[in-house]
Amino acid sequence: MSNMRIPEITNNPSKVQLARIAHVCFEHPDLEVFAQFAGDWGFVEAKRDEGKIWYRGYGIDPFVYVASKSQDGNPRFGGAAFVAKSEEDFEKAANLPGATPSSLEDAPGGGKMITFTRSDNIKFHVVYGQTERKVEGPAPSATHEVQGPYNGPFEKLRKGTFQRYHEGPALVHKLGHFGLVNREFDTEINWYTSNFNFVPSNVLYHPELTDMDVLTFMHLDLGKEFSDHHAFFMQRAPPEVKRSYMHHTSYEVADFDEQLIGHEFLGKRGYKSVWGVGRHILGSQIFDYWKDPSGFMIEHYADGDLVNEETHTTREVVGPLSVWGPELPKTFGDDSTKSARLIQDRQQKGDLQRPGCSRCLEAGSLCTYSAERKKPGPPRGSRRQKHGTTPASSVSTETHATPGDQADTFLTPDQHSLAHESGIVFPDIVEGICLPREEVQEFGGFSLQDPTYGLPDLGARSHRENIGLYPGYSLSHEQEKQLLVHFFNEVHPAIPLFRIEHFLRQYDDGSANRNLLVAIVTIAAKVLSPINFWKPEDVEICMKFLLETMSPETASTDTHNSLDSFRLECLLAYYEFHQSPGSNSWMRISSLARRAYAVGVNQIDNPELCSAFDRTAVTEDDIEDWRYLFWCIYCLDSYSNITVGTPPVVELESINTALARRPHDQVHSLSTSIPKIFLPDDVEDIWETAKAVVSNGTMVNYNLHMVTTTALRQAGYILRLRAEGKRLYTRIATVKGAIAALRLSLPSRYLNPARNALSGESCIEHHIRLTNILHLQMASLIITIPRGFEKDEEGFMQNWMGSLEPCQNIVSVVEQWDNQHFPHIDPAICFIVFSALCFLELHRLSTADPAAPFIANIDRGQHLLMLFLEQFSSMWTVPRFLLQQFRKIQSRYKDTGLTYAEVDLLLSKFKTPLHPKAIERFSDISTIAPDTNMNTNTASYHDDLWFFNLDDNYNLDL
Fold first, then answer.
1. pLDDT of 858-887, one tens digit each?
2. Exposure letters 920-938 (e unless 16+ CB within 10 A, then b)
3. Which residue, 284, 314, 340, sits at the end of a domain?
4. Of 233, 236, 190, which is closest to residue 211 (Cα–Cα)?
5. Within-domain flag for 528
């Protein structure tokens, strides 16, 4: 493993010398709400301008906090500013690469500023030339009436006078420090310490990997002059963190009494306490952490350490964070802006219009609401508040570490071995190695996180309720977490139903739907089997129980049409269709689609016809969740009915639900400025939708997936018309023109199966695009299926030869497939690959010269397609079954030759893979592999699947 230590750092005159931390900048969704908090926090308003307020303390800085109105409604950290020691140092900073100068003439104290934009758009500022405030007399106080010296055990200095205090805010003296959780830890540490006089006071390293430093507290080296123990700290971000973030900012108050009085003052005003009051070890300060109305974590501190150039940097293992104080919340290390967005959502819903309840007040919890109807009261598992608890302490709703939690470690066996043995440890392995839980909990946000970052334990009560309720389900918390992580990483991309961060928060607070959670975990275990801690037979028992009992009919009237009820049915329908195809799965999907129709999920953007949710009680993100649900149902309805050969339940003309506008893994709230895009009523206009999707640039591949699915649905309609013979050629011409226009509307290189690495196309986006290409190729194949050899031999031959091209194109797509992405993609594409296999086989059998070079290309293509099905077969039944059927066909007709008239006759008897007529012809169950897991009412009919049946039923003289 490469050395991940922070090198020895010292100050020298060549660096920009900074004198002190000056101010921080934030954007808030509601500036007036924050202004109320600012006064209660102890800030003094220094100046107010349109959309901006400057706040000061009672120290020398003209302001310490700049609050601006967010233009897009999202809370945002705008960076920290430090004062240059001299104008020479300021000019030195101005000459650094990336420096952007600006004026502070409109700010209190004036001056000038330089801004640097660092990793993940985090700002760092240097200021100079400000007019400092004159500070005279004793420190002001909003809480102290009379305070004399303290009387100690052996020295009594206060005699005849009394300590007297009253309620009020803890007034802020100055900004003390801020901290970052950074993905580019090593690079950013080097930049800050190479260019400025930041020197580590303490460096903390991983307990197992002693060459991996995970956090540093840095002070400003002022030579002999003492400065605060840290003005800036930086943590190495866990590997799951996708964006660096600000952890908290901290402000000095006068003393312990003022801090405690301020704590109670904030609590009585309903603000959210995070952690405190307590005393830190490193830095020694008394701390008190809260969250402001936008969700940012903010600290009052008192009695902190001072250091100078004679104070040596210490390097020590990660350890406890506090000497005394409350238990550390599990969420202390989280990105506070995620909570900020959640709070903003609540404000947008109109919390003031929602009553509180006595049960939540008794439990010391804030009332929370969802779109579901639920019984009143605090979340399941929370306890009644004990008598005597102070109002301030009752405000905190954080979950804390328990002794049981601190007994575990997070190292997997492989990682544990790597951590304890000499030799090379590869970087990708190192990323997953994490601290023992006791140190994660004690050290909170200043530590490496668990690989299941963001997935805390369920309460013991909830876990016990699972055992026995679901047959075969007896997982520990850690095992459940592992499978949940794997589901979102590997299975969820194929059926994106959830806002991942939002669902994990529900999991965190115990409000996640239990049936839904068990279904997620069980499906992950089935698809990604074998699981070493869950026996396959137990997984099968639990899955069977879910399929048999978790249906809309078993749901309560309150949750029958809830979002989670629909999601549960979607997951079960997705699983059953690919694992046990047949009438049961087809009926489940049809019932699901009709339920969605009944509440207007197909009319989400037509409030008059959609009754799925109360629009006055949901956010745009909640509505977007319903859109994801509908498009999942749309795909399931499409695949199941195309393969059965029946009309879909969801009609194109009935859809008034916009395409997706927010990635399912996006943590930011949905912007209402993103335009809505809809599928057209007429397939001939589908190209316009594709152009709009590409132009919009949001969720391009996902939304184009709906476009190509629509094209495939139209081709499925042509398959049904073939049996009728009516309107067939007119419809073929229409769909053929629509697909041609759709192709031309796509970006250049979109239909090129190779990954566009130069444009930064990710592997998963590449495979979603490959799926979309397969849709278009299958639609093209269906369009070219010839008909009527005797009536129009030339036309028949032209179409027959034309059917070879989409088959070859399907082979070209499969050539680009990476087998590590199989779980990420809907296995319904196996029907497309199987179709190409069958058509290539027909081309082989109808070729006059079996030794022609053309046959070698067919052999190669079929070999790749069969390998593709074999890969999917390790996870799903459908590809395993299709592969088995094709091999039987190949074996049976290995030396058979077909005339074009015979090909025409076969094609005229064409049936889709799961069509009832195709099923009922075959009743030999003996050839079905025992592990295919087909529905019993289906397996008995599937001796030869698909239309490709060369037997005496067709009176062919073979």
1. 999 999 999 999 988 888 888 988 888 888
2. eebeeeeebeeebbbbeeb
3. 340
4. 236
5. no
3-state secondary structure of 291: strand
Could you tell me the two tokens for 503? 């669902």
Residue 933 lies in a domain: yes
> In angstroms, how far is the first alpha carbon of the chain from the final one?
67
Give the chain's domain count: 2
* DSSP secondary structure letter of residue 5: P
The answer to whether the beta carbons of residues 99 and 93 sit under 8 Å apart is yes
Q: Which two tokens stand for residue 430?
A: 């190192």
Q: Which domain holds residue 117?
A: 18-340
- Which residue type sits at 262? G
Q: Which of 340, 359, 376 is the last residue of a domain?
A: 340
In-domain check, residue 824: no
Q: What is the pTM of this model?
A: 0.54
Question: Structure tokens of 588?
Answer: 């489940």
Residue 65 lies in a domain: yes
Write the DSSP symbol of residue 142: S
452-487: pLDDT as tens digits = 333 333 333 344 444 557 888 988 878 888 899 899
Maximum C-alpha span of the chain? 121
Residues 6+ apart with CB under 8 A from 636: 570, 573, 574, 577, 589, 592, 593
Distance CA 598, CA 594 (A): 6
Helices (runs of H) and strands (runs of E) counted in the chain: 30, 22
Strands 144-146 and 123-128: unpaired
pLDDT digits (tens, 9 = 90+) for 239-276: 888 889 999 999 999 999 999 999 999 999 999 899 99
Residues with Cβ < 8 Å from 571, sequence gap 6 or more? 495, 497, 516, 519, 520, 523
